[in-house]
Design brief:
The structure holds two protein chains of two kinds. In chain A, α5 links the parallel β4 and β5. Chain A has six helices and five strands. Chain A is of the alpha/beta class. Chain A is globular. Chain A has a five-stranded parallel sheet with strand order 2-1-3-4-5, with helices on both faces. In chain A, α3 runs parallel beside α4. In chain A, about 45% of the residues lie in helices and about 15% in strands. A two-stranded antiparallel sheet of chain B has the order 1-2. In chain B, α4 runs antiparallel to α5 and α4 runs antiparallel to α6. Chains A and B meet through α2 of A and α4, α5 and α6 of B.
Chain lengths: ~140, ~250
């Protein structure tokens, strides 16, 4: 595990604002801490897709890390809303979820997800996917 | 009105003519009651044989039917008795699942226990995360002040251990999701049982045996394990226990 936080070093990348979307507060807290370990400190949270969309329209985020299974707006619906919005559609989106069925992953991919992480996950996986999405690996 | 006896004038005239009175009476009676001479229709000659034969065949069929039907009836009666027995047994089993007089509903109890598991593990997970966050803060502070070397390397190892703690806390989310699925399944079964009970007269179940408690027993003492989440729990706190020993 040594060296987990030392792969992303680009200061501009690490300074970006990340939105963590999950209906489970403990999970948001875990992701926030892992992001902190990677070097991302500007992290905001939303507990569902609707709140996330509001935040995305108010502020500029460099990355969205979202759960899938949420009410009233799921992660997939949030992704589709983002991709349908001309101002938001370029925002990188990583799905972090327990949903691992092939059809689900394909549906998310077709909807425009940039990467997909199945829970449980570790910091190294999170870091690799972020680096891959942001082109900093 | 018909004339049945001669008028006085007729009698006088008969006497005058020397006609016997009896003949006069007879003549008048004959006029009053003429003999019916209605002509009857000619008798119809019919062959009753086919009808009688059909009746005989029908009787024979009825005899056969009644003989067979009796055996069938007995068979059906046995089957109905069997079905009745099975229905009663099913009702007893259903009453074991949800009895109107049971103190604790098993479905509610199971769901509450599972919710308690989620709540307790969530609380514990958050406590672990808080401790890890505190450690992380200390580690970051140490790293900032420590020169490169063995000690710095060990601090980095501590940092990696903290990351693993965060990673391990993932379990809580998945465990919570799995338990939520189980609770949903329980709710589904509960609804089906409730529907089945409603198909019958629900009050009938009150007369059936009350289900046994699933808790372990030590003699007369019930061993319920962790404090139960429903209102009927009689557990007391550690301070109340301490008070008993003061």
């Amino acid at each position: 595990m040594a060296g987990v936080i030392r792969h992303i070093t680009d200061a501009e990348t690490l300074a970006m604002k990340i939105l963590v979307v999950d209906d489970y507060a403990t999970m948001r807290r875990i992701v926030r801490n892992l992001l902190s370990q990677i070097g991302f400190t500007d992290v905001e949270e939303a507990n569902d897709g609707v709140t996330a969309l509001q935040k995305l329209r108010e502020k500029s985020f460099g990355l969205v890390i979202s759960d899938w299974n949420m009410e009233p707006m799921t992660g997939l619906q949030l992704l589709k809303e983002i991709r349908a919005d001309v101002k938001l559609n370029a925002t990188p989106f990583i799905m972090v979820t327990a949903e691992s069925k092939t059809d689900n992953v394909i549906a998310a991919k077709q909807a425009g997800v940039n990467n997909y992480i199945v829970k449980p996950f570790n910091a190294d996986t999170l870091k690799q996917k972020i680096a891959s999405v942001l082109g900093t690996s | 009105m018909r004339q049945t006896k001669p008028f006085t004038a007729e009698l006088q005239l008969a006497r005058k003519d020397g006609q016997p009175i009896t003949e006069l009476f007879q003549a008048i009676r004959t006029q009053a009651d003429p003999i019916e001479t209605t002509t009857l229709p000619a008798p119809v000659v019919t062959d009753n044989q086919p009808v009688l034969q059909a009746i005989a065949e029908l009787g024979s069929k009825l005899d056969r039917f009644l003989a067979t039907d009796q055996a069938e009836l007995e068979k059906i009666q046995v089957e109905i008795a069997d079905i009745s027995g099975r229905i009663k047994a099913t009702k007893v089993e259903m009453a074991q699942l949800r009895h109107p007089l049971a103190e604790n509903d098993k479905f509610t109890q199971a769901s509450e226990e599972l919710h308690a598991v989620v709540s307790a593990t969530e609380s514990a997970t958050n406590a672990i995360i808080s401790s890890a966050e505190e450690l992380d803060e200390i580690v970051q502070e140490l790293k900032a002040q420590m020169p490169e070397g063995y000690q710095s390397s060990r601090v980095n190892d501590m940092n990696d251990a903290i990351v693993r703690i965060f990673e391990s806390c993932n379990f809580q989310d998945l465990a919570g999701q799995r338990i939520t699925k189980v609770v949903k399944t329980l709710t589904f079964i509960e609804e089906r049982v409730e529907s089945m009970l409603n198909l019958w007269n629900k009050q009938e179940f009150a007369a059936l045996p009350v289900p046994q408690d699933l808790d372990k027993k030590d003699g007369d003492l019930q061993l319920t394990g962790p404090k139960e989440v429903h209102d009927g729990d009689t557990s007391i706190s550690q301070s109340e226990i301490d008070a008993l020993f003061d």
